[in-house]
Design brief:
This protein is of the alpha/beta class and 224 residues long. The chain has two domains: 119 residues, Rossmann fold (3-Layer(aba) Sandwich); 94 residues, no CATH class. The protein has six helices and nine strands; from the N terminus they run E-H-E-H-E-H-E-H-E-H-E-H-E-E-E. Strands 3-2-1-4-5 form a five-stranded parallel sheet, sandwiched between helices. Helix 4 links the parallel strand 4 and strand 5. The N and C termini lie far apart (38 Å).
Length: 224
């Protein structure tokens, strides 16, 4: 039986990466990683990862990355999202992989928008316990670092830390979701079973950005 072709929604973080990996194990052929970047900052909309770093990530994995610039307006974003998926899907691809875990509003949005354009959402992580998901991520051989965090939830010392079993315990003690599903923190995957080459971060500094919420970010200056 031939594999079903799919697009994978891609942020560069652990949940989208694990969802993509699990979909591949389930028999899907992921033809594209679809990533949205801010038209202002040229960085990932939700994780703040620099676009060139995600291109290197995709090259290390060996799947073509498609990056689309989007605006901050959510109504416009929905149409931009639909246009991007339509352009890739054509007649061959009818599935798209997402890394949603338990946010019902998000999965409802995914189902509605995908339904509008005739795409079936694939949700390999949905309704699994966050701690089980992050442990599966680690046990599968993936490696990720924290690249952003809400300052009121996690301090400067967490920025740049590798996801590991010790960190999971610390997050639970702070009553922070081990997957950061509520936006408490975001990650960058640097290695794993689908990577042909590990990404090395050689120069980076934590910086504090103030806005509606204070966020710590890992300013990654050099990598290879």
């Amino acid at each position: 039986m031939s594999k079903k072709s799919a697009i994978s929604s891609w942020s560069g973080g652990k949940d989208s990466c694990l969802a993509c990996y699990k979909a591949m194990l389930q028999g899907y052929q992921v033809d594209y990683l679809l990533n949205f970047i801010s038209s202002d900052s040229k960085r990932g909309c939700f994780h703040g990862i620099e676009s060139g770093l995600m291109k290197l990530q995709a090259e290390s994995i060996g799947i073509q990355l498609i990056q689309k610039e989007v605006t901050a307006d959510m109504k416009k974003y929905e149409e931009e999202f639909k246009d991007a998926v339509r352009a890739l899907a054509g007649n061959e691809i009818k599935q798209m992989v997402f890394g949603d875990i338990f946010l019902l509003d998000q999965v409802n949005w995914v189902e509605r928008v995908c339904g509008d354009i005739g795409i079936t959402p694939v949700e390999p992580l949905w309704n699994n316990k966050p701690e089980d998901i992050v442990n599966e991520f680690l046990d599968s051989g993936f490696e990720a670092v924290i690249v952003s965090a809400q300052a009121e939830k996690l301090g400067k010392e967490f920025i740049g830390r590798h996801i590991d079993k010790k960190l999971i315990c610390e997050l639970k003690e702070r009553r922070v979701c081990p997957c950061g599903e509520n936006g408490e923190f975001h990650t960058l995957v640097i290695d794993g079973p689908i990577f042909k080459k590990r990404i090395e971060i050689t120069k980076a500094d934590p910086i504090l950005k103030e806005g509606f919420w204070k966020h710590w970010f890992l300013d990654i200056k050099e990598y290879n």
